[in-house]
Task: inverse folding
C-alpha cells in the first residue's frame, strides 16, 4: 500500500536539523515524508540523514512580500503535482507560505506548529503586519499546535484563532529530548579537563553557559552586563557562549560586542554542531531570553544534569520550577540576573539540590519518544487510523 504523504516545512533547514532531528526519519516509517526548506545544499544533507525526500523552496526570515508570493506559487505547483495528505509547517514564514499554498492546492489537513511568537517583541506597523500574518496562517490551517501550554494561552488572549483549533502535543515541545544522547555519563573526567584546558578554563572555575543565537532578544546584552557584575565579586567564574551572531537580524549593543571580544573570562566558540561537550564542562545554564516557544536548550541542559537560570516566559517556566531545578527571573532585568548567578555561585546547598533534580525532571516529562508517539497518534487520527 502506498504511504500517504506528509510535507514538513520550515523556513531554513537548520530548524529541520536542530529542532526536529530524528523525527522525520521516525515518521517516514508510516508516511512518505517530504522535507521543505531553503538552502538546497544544507537541505539535501538533512534528507540523506533523515532518509526522506526533499524539496528546496527559497524563503527568507525577513519581510519580503514579493519573494514570499513566489514561494507560495512554487509550493502550490509542487502540491498540485504531488498528492499530499498533510502539510505541517513550523516557523512564521514557512507557516504563512505553507498554509496558504496548501489551502489553495486543496490539501485536506494543514497543520502549523507555533514554537514562539517573534511578534511579541515588535511594535507599531511591524507588529500590526506580523499579527495579520499570524492570523492568516491560523485561518488557513486546520489545526494549530502551540508547543507549550502557556503559548496556547497567549494565542487565545490575542484572539488569533478559535480555541477548538488549538492543541498542545504531550507536555509540550516540538521534538522532546533524547536523554540517552544528552547524558553527562557519556563524558569522562579526562574529557572535561581536556576541553577546559583547550578553552583556557581553570579546573576550579565555575562555568556559566549560554547556548543559542547571540542576539538581542535572547537577552545577551543583559547576560554580558550581569556577568560583569558577578565578575567584580568573584574572579573564578567563566561565561561560555555557544552559538552564532546574527548581526543582520538582531544585532547586539556595541558595548556587549566589545566585552565579548576583549574579556578573557568570556569564551565565545561560535556555532557548534554538537553542544554536549560544552554542556559537560559547565555548571549552570543561563538563558535570559525575551520570548520562546519551548526551548530545546533548557531541556538539553537539564538532561545533562545542570540547573538553569531562565526568564519568566512561556516554555521556560514550564520546564524550570523555581528553586527545584533552576531559578526563574524577570525578563530584561540585569540586576536580578546577576543576583541569580551569584546565588548559584555562593549557595552550594541550593546548587546541589537543583543539580540533583535537573535530569530526572526532564526524563520524566519530556522524553523524545513520548513526544514522537503523541504526534504520530495525531497524524494517524487525522488519517482515520487506529
Result:
Amino acid at each position: 500500500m502506498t504511504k500517504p504523504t506528509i510535507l514538513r516545512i520550515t523556513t531554513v533547514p537548520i530548524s529541520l536539523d536542530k529542532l526536529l532531528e530524528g523525527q522525520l526519519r521516525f515518521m517516514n516509517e508510516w508516511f512518505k515524508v517530504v522535507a521543505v526548506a531553503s538552502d538546497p545544499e544544507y537541505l539535501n544533507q538533512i534528507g540523506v540523514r533523515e532518509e526522506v525526500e526533499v524539496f528546496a523552496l527559497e524563503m527568507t526570515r525577513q519581510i519580503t512580500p514579493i519573494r514570499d508570493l513566489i514561494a507560495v506559487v512554487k509550493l502550490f505547483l509542487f502540491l498540485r503535482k504531488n498528492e499530499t495528505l498533510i502539510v505541517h509547517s513550523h516557523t512564521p514564514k514557512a507557516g504563512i507560505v505553507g498554509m496558504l499554498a496548501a489551502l489553495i492546492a486543496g490539501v485536506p489537513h494543514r497543520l502549523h506548529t507555533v514554537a514562539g511568537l517573534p511578534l511579541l517583541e515588535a511594535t507599531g506597523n511591524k507588529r500590526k503586519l506580523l499579527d495579520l500574518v499570524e492570523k492568516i496562517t491560523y485561518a488557513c490551517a486546520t489545526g494549530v499546535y502551540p508547543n507549550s501550554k502557556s503559548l496556547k494561552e497567549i494565542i487565545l488572549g490575542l484572539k488569533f484563532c478559535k480555541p477548538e483549533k488549538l492543541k498542545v502535543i504531550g507536555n509540550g515541545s516540538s521534538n522532546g529530548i533524547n536523554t540517552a544522547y544528552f547524558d553527562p555519563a557519556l563524558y569522562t573526567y579526562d574529557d572535561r579537563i581536556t576541553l577546559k584546558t583547550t578553552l583556557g578554563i581553570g579546573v576550579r572555575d565555575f562555568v556559566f553557559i549560554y547556548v543559542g543565537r547571540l542576539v538581542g532578544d535572547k537577552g545577551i546584552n543583559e547576560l554580558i552586563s550581569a556577568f560583569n557584575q558577578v565578575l567584580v565579586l568573584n574572579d573564578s567564574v567563566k561565561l561560555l557562549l555557544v552559538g552564532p551572531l546574527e548581526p543582520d537580524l538582531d544585532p547586539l549593543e556595541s558595548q556587549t560586542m566589545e566585552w565579548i571580544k576583549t574579556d578573557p573570562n568570556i569564551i565565545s566558540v561560535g556555532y557548534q554542531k554538537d553542544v554536549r561537550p560544552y554542556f559537560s564542562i559547565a555548571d549552570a545554564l543561563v538563558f535570559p531570553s525575551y520570548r520562546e516557544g519551548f526551548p530545546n536548550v533548557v531541556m538539553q541542559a537539564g538532561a545533562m544534569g545542570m540547573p538553569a537560570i531562565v526568564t519568566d516566559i512561556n516554555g521556560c517556566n514550564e520546564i524550570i520550577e523555581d528553586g527545584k531545578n533552576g531559578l526563574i527571573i524577570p525578563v530584561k532585568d540585569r540586576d536580578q540576573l546577576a543576583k541569580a548567578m551569584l546565588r548559584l555561585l555562593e549557595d552550594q546547598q541550593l546548587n546541589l539540590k537543583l543539580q540533583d533534580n535537573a535530569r530526572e525532571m526532564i526524563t520524566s516529562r519530556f522524553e523524545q519518544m513520548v513526544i514522537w508517539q503523541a504526534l504520530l497518534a495525531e497524524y494517524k487520527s487525522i488519517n482515520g487510523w487506529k
In short: The chain has a mean pLDDT of 94. The domain at 184-363 is CATH 3.40.50.2000 (Rossmann fold).
